[in-house]
Amino acid sequence: NVPLATVERVAKYLRCLNRLREKGIKVVSSKELAEHTRTSPEQVRKDLSYFGRFGKTGTGYDTQKLSRKLERILKAQRKWNVCIIGAGSLGSALARYQGFKDTGYNVVALFDSDPEKIGEKMGQAEVYDIENFKDVVKKKDIKMAILAVPKESIEEIEELLSKANNIRGILNFVPVTIKLKTRRKVAIIDVDLAQKLYILSYLIKRGREM
Amino acid sequence: NVPLATVERVAKYLRCLNRLREKGIKVVSSKELAEHTRTSPEQVRKDLSYFGRFGKTGTGYDTQKLSRKLERILKAQRKWNVCIIGAGSLGSALARYQGFKDTGYNVVALFDSDPEKIGEKMGQAEVYDIENFKDVVKKKDIKMAILAVPKESIEEIEELLSKANNIRGILNFVPVTIKLKTRRKVAIIDVDLAQKLYILSYLIKRGREM
Ligand SMILES: NC(=O)c1ccc[n+]([C@@H]2O[C@H](COP(=O)([O-])OP(=O)(O)OC[C@H]3O[C@@H](n4cnc5c(N)ncnc54)[C@H](O)[C@@H]3O)[C@@H](O)[C@H]2O)c1
Ligand SMILES: NC(=O)c1ccc[n+]([C@@H]2O[C@H](COP(=O)([O-])OP(=O)(O)OC[C@H]3O[C@@H](n4cnc5c(N)ncnc54)[C@H](O)[C@@H]3O)[C@@H](O)[C@H]2O)c1
Fold first, then answer.
1. Residue of A nearest to B203 (CA)
2. Residues flanking ligand 1, CB < 6 Å
3. What is the pLDDT of residues B119-155, one digit of tens each?
4. In angstroms, rounded to a whole number, what is the distance separating the alpha carbons of residues B88 and B92?
5. Hey, how many other C-beta atoms are within 10 angstroms of the C-beta on B13?
6. Which domains does chain B have, with CATH numbers?
7. By C-alpha distance, which of A131, A111, A138 is closest to A122?
8. Which residue of B has its CA nearest to A8?
9. How many Cβ atoms sit within 10 Å of the Cβ of residue A63?
């Protein structure tokens, strides 16, 4: 089993390779990949070695071939339909983020309980009534949900997600530990940006470049 | 030297302890802490052991004592003044996030180049003209900057940050690798939420609970 920290770095390498390919860069060394992802060349080679041998030309990796391999490892070669629950200031900012689309994750719907927001368009998607969550998720084959509702509403949303069999993964921005009442396996990642500031103050005091 | 992945988890444990203390919970076991942070009790004990011995009563850790210790490790016991550069949809959503204030990071200013936004109040802070960046950063003793400008504006911002000696840490949301031209050590953390979706699809396909 691959450690999660390695998977996180592989995701970073892939995002970086996407950007290099956009600029027409055909080859990248482990040193360059390390600089862009603020890791070390040894770490890059160690992480990639989990997944077998990667063809390295004299001066580095073929960016096209390496991205294809990393996409297969992360199961990212298919397109995923994603929804955002909570079309408030965070939800609407995420709906407009081009980075999701660039990586094959299409935000196809937002959900909200506020009548003023229902029917609005944000980014490429429309805001639907949370009452129609189950129907819309099925119709649009939505497999991932991003949570951006206030803390107070989390229990209702946990209820909905427990019953929506289509949803297989959750990116949670609400600062609580969510628990679903369901037997199906659902991957959950919590994001807390305040945590990043804790890490930043640690790095500042250590005088380290991260 | 403590591995970065350990520092990231310690930040997660501290955010979780903050929430438990808010609910008046006085003791927590490594099992409960692991459940809340989606790690394992062994991982919790291993991470904490980097930093010395932690008093464990028969049933677990004292939440107050443990938070104090982790705050000291992360150098989070002092208050930090933070600014956000780019008061658009992401910047304004972050300015309103209560989580920063709860952890002792005060967003005291936003900066923007759009005259329509300058002078507005977002969260607890006002939007200043980016032209006055250096003066405001000095006057308000701002040590950290969160970047939320479009890709196209990043070079101007790198210029500004290179010259602003007060700034010691950067939380970067712009999907590029930022490089500062300065000798002083500046800690930089890149955040790319699209990367989180890559990890989510990996976990879904592995059928793992994360
Ligand atoms: N993790 C982070 O770093 C981070 C950063 C910013 C915000 N947040 C969190 O994200 C959440 C949203 O923050 P925000 O600033 O966008 O808040 P907001 O109030 O602007 O938006 C919340 C939206 O959720 C909708 N809503 C409320 N109850 C609902 C329900 N039952 N079903 C559907 N929609 C519902 C509201 O109508 C509103 O549009 C909060 O929990 C906040 O703490 C987290
Ligand atoms: N990393 C992530 O996961 C993530 C998620 C969402 C958005 N983003 C990124 O965050 C950035 C902001 O996104 P957004 O949706 O808020 O965009 P936006 O257009 O809504 O906001 C950008 C703001 O920056 C201001 N600005 C432009 N040039 C400036 C300059 N030179 N100095 C000061 N202010 C300037 C604009 O006036 C505007 O208010 C983008 O780069 C986007 O790619 C990243």
1. A187
2. A 85-91, 111-114, 117, 130, 148-151, 153, 156, 173-175, 191-193; B 93, 96-97, 99
3. 999 999 999 999 999 999 999 999 999 999 999 999 9
4. 6
5. 24
6. 4-71 (1.10.10.10), 80-194 (3.40.50.720)
7. A111
8. B199
9. 21
